[in-house]
Amino acid sequence: MKITMAHGSGGSASAELMKNIFGRYFSNEILDRMEDAAVLDMRGKTACSTDSFVVTPIEFKGGDIGKLCICGTVNDLLMMGAEPEYITCGFILEEGLDVSVLERIVASMAAQAERAGVRIAAGDTKVVEGRGGMYINTTGLGRIPEGREISAGNCVPGDKVLLSGTLGDHHACILSARMEIENDIKSDCACLSDITAALFDSGIKVRAMRDVTRGGLGTILNELADTSGCGMRIEEESIPVSDEVRAFSGMLGLDPLYMGNEGKMAAVVAAEDAERALAVMKETGHGADAALIGEITKGKGVTLMTRLGAGRVLDVLTGEGLPRIC
Amino acid sequence: MDIGTIISYLQKYDGPEIKLMEVCGTHTSSIFRNGIRSLISPRIRLISGPGCPVCVTPTSYIDCISDYALKDGYEVLTFGDMMKVPGSAGCLSERKGEGAKVHIMYSPFEAVEKAQTYPQTTWVVAAVGFETTAPAYALMIKEAAEKNITNIKVVTALKTIIPALKWICENQPEIDGFICPGHVSVITGSEIYSELAEKYRKPFVVAGFEAEHILAVIYDIVKQLEKGEARADNLYQNAVRSGGNEKALDILSRCFETDAATWRGLGTIAGSGLYLTGRYAAYDGGSRGLGRDMELPEGCRCADVITGRIDPAECPMFASSCTPASPYGPCMVSAEGACGIWYRNR
Amino acid sequence: MCIAIPGKVISIEGNTARADFSGNIVSVNTGLIEPEVGQYVLVHAGCAIEVMDKEKAEEIIELFADLEELEGN
Questions:
Q1: Is C37 on the interface with B (CB under 8 A)?
Q2: Is the pLDDT of residue A326 over 60?
Q3: What is the pLDDT of residue A75?
């Protein structure tokens, strides 16, 4: 069965969809009330983040748009030191989408939400003309424990920069699917709560965190440096990239430093905690390939030290990072 | 001899100022990516030349491709490099928003698949490049001809490197030596530079793309200049043979003829362009005469940057009114364009 | 001015070969070379443009030897 405009009209077709798909997988005591808005008790500092997911293909090695939309928003909250609690989801479905595909995606979201410890508090569905595509917006809320203050502005010269794992996997996976290049590259789509929890539980002095999404590591390192009014020195050789992703990006003239991930993060920690932070990260499921990649310095901008000891500027991503020939 | 001794020597160089030109966009990129300039003496100046096929493509080419993309029954295939090059009414990326049917290809052979799968559409290939890429386009067109596929058109902006090098030697005698392109030379062979080395009495050395390759070539050229030598050397022997790739050269001679081509910044150079000929001319989508270029605004020094007369930073518009987000010329948007690379590394 | 990287030929069918780039398998056109299974070929825009004799590490070693030879002459 396919999604039609009727499914978005608010009538019986919509109700059917609610009952058979959304209601079934997302059931919890908040949603089941079916009121116009969820009433939540959020006291204290609360982090809030929203993101829209428009990836194609919607199912790929290592995940799907459902898993992605939960992880993406949960990770944004985690990067502020928050404990994610609630998430909303707005669906825009194109006519022609197979209902069985929608069901798979919704089931995947429910499973990921459970793994992440978040509850779906509100949702919406619209149907538009199109060719069977699907877009999801998620907004997340999470409380920040008393006394915790994580911000890009906290970094000071001497702090160390850690990266939780290999670069470019998600981007390479999606492009491989679109270009029909055969490989085993999987999206690294994942919630980073095991890493953040481990860092906080070990008493590591975390200054700032950022997940490495669109724009890649190059872009987020610049954000961290600029916001804190500092410089940064990164050792190129220390940055982990899998052989497969490196070759893939070599083939297309892409740079792993600017390729997106969906389950990797950079953390800036106090210098004296760096070695311990690295060890703690490596013991987590998602941080096995973690590396110490550099440090915060005086001055400005991000300087990359190359294999041969040359220093060059690492700027933000300009343009779209299109596959090129030259 | 190891990389340490080479770097040490180049760093300590204290002789007369040397100007070396690299004529390959991928070399420009590699030099920046590896921080080469910070490893050598400031008395050895590396200058980017007109070796970025995108940068030297005039506006009228983009306009021609855009027109096809907006026409009913036509769709365009192009490499990613061309998407942001400015045309008279915007770049291909912008025109997609107006309904231009433009697709990024990874290989020209995709045109054959598309033409067979969608026979009602004429597929127009934006065939830009130098000798490295020209044989691939030729093989694709040959395959199309063999399979009797008629719904493919190719608009070529294919150029050859030697005429450009000659132009530089004639018009910019202050360049002391040349880092020759790696992959163009795979096709053409390294022997082609001997004539230039002899005539203009300057070193021409073929380089690969690793930091070591580039540093070794700079070292070779500096040493040659110190001894007053002028050789054409090949330091990319794993991939480049002196006679080049014979099959590739053969197919180029069968599918293309040479004629004048317009290089943004250099002007029209006789015999520097490749155009489909003989039975393959039927696939041409109007490649000749696309020489008109846009009026560059007052103060824009795109032409001087492409020819290496100035560094991008010396153009008054650099990083102020000309940025990758709003470029006046292709140098600023092409991934291999000197201005774009300088901007990203400023 | 051209991105090209070496891949290992794993099979040949007529005018194309499947080449392995550290786990990425693509079809490449072999109209410009005479490939053999197991060889490394330099691939640009979906087209194999040359057979590479040596792997990169070995190539760099040879590079310094070539340079020394030129200097010696």
A1: no
A2: no
A3: 98
Interchain proximity C32–B247, CB inside 8 Å: yes
The CB density around residue B86, as the number of other CB atoms within 10 Å, is 19
Q: Cβ separation of C45 and B133 shorter than 8 Å? A: yes
Give the per-residue pLDDT at B335: 60
Q: What are the start-end ranges of the E strands in chain B?
A: 18-22, 44-48, 74-78, 102-104, 122-129, 152-159, 177-180, 204-206, 232-234, 256-263, 267-276
CB contact under 8 A, B211 and A306: yes
Look at A76-80, A84-88, A105-109, B324-328 and tell me which has the smallest mean pLDDT: B324-328
Cβ atoms of residues B54 and B79 within 8 Å: no
Is B237 an 8 Å CB contact of chain C? yes
Q: Give the A window 161-220 contacts with C, CB below 8 Å.
A: 176, 181-185
- Is the CB of A311 inside 8 Å of chain C's CB atoms? no
CB contact under 8 A, A247 and C22: yes
Higher per-residue pLDDT: A306 or A35: A306
Residue A196, both tokens: 């953040």
Q: Which of A249, A251, A322 to mutate to test the interface with C (most CBs of C within 10 A)?
A: A251
Mean pLDDT for chain B overall: 92
pLDDT at residue A166 is higher than 50: yes
What pTM was computed for the model?
0.92
Does domain A5-143 fall under CATH 3.50.4.10? My reply is no
So where are chain C's domains? 5-72
Give residue A229's pLDDT band: very low, low, confident or very high (50, 70, 90): very high
Are the beta carbons of B247 and C33 separated by less than 8 Å? Answer: yes
Flag if B83 and A322 touch (Cβ within 8 Å): yes
Chain C residues lying within 8 Å of A247, measured CB to CB: 5, 7, 21-24
The residue of chain C with its CA nearest to that of A176 is C24
Six token digits for residue A70: 């939960």
pLDDT of C54 = 77
Whether residues A325 and C25 touch (CB distance < 8 A) is answered with no
Three-state DSSP class for residue A175:
helix
Are the beta carbons of B38 and A179 separated by less than 8 Å? no
pLDDT at residue B346, rounded to an integer: 67
Provide the pLDDT for residue C1: 43
Report phi then psi at C44, rounded to 5.
Answer: -130, 125
The superfamily CATH assigns to domain A152-314 is PurM-like C-terminal domain (3.90.650.10)
Please report the ipTM that was assigned to this predicted complex. 0.94
Which of C1, C47, C64 is nearest residue B1 as measured by Cβ atoms?
A: C64
Per-residue pLDDT tens digits for B212-221: 999 999 999 9
What's the CA gap between C44 and A245, in Å, rounded? 18
CB contacts under 8 A, B 147-176 vs C, are none
Q: Which residues of chain B neighbour C3 with C-beta distances below 8 Å?
A: 26
Query: Mind listing the domains of chain B with CATH numbers?
Result: 1-303 (3.40.50.11750), 304-344 (no CATH)
Q: Does A235 touch chain C (CB under 8 A)?
A: no
- What is the average pLDDT across A105-129? 96
CA atoms of B31 and B42, how far apart (whole Å): 14
Concatenate the DSSP letters of all residues of A20-89 into one string.
Answer: IIIHHHH--TTGGG--SS------S-EEEEEEEE--SSSEETTEEHHHHHHHHHHHHHHTTT-EEEEEEE
**Whether the domain at A5-143 and the domain at A152-314 fall into the same CATH topology:** no
For the domain spanning C5-72, the CATH number is 2.30.30.140
Domain-wise residue ranges, chain A: 5-143, 152-314
Quickly state the pLDDT bin for C40 (edges 50, 70, 90).
Answer: very high
pLDDT digits (tens, 9 = 90+) for B298-315: 778 888 887 888 888 899
Instruction: Report the residue count for chain B.
Output: 346
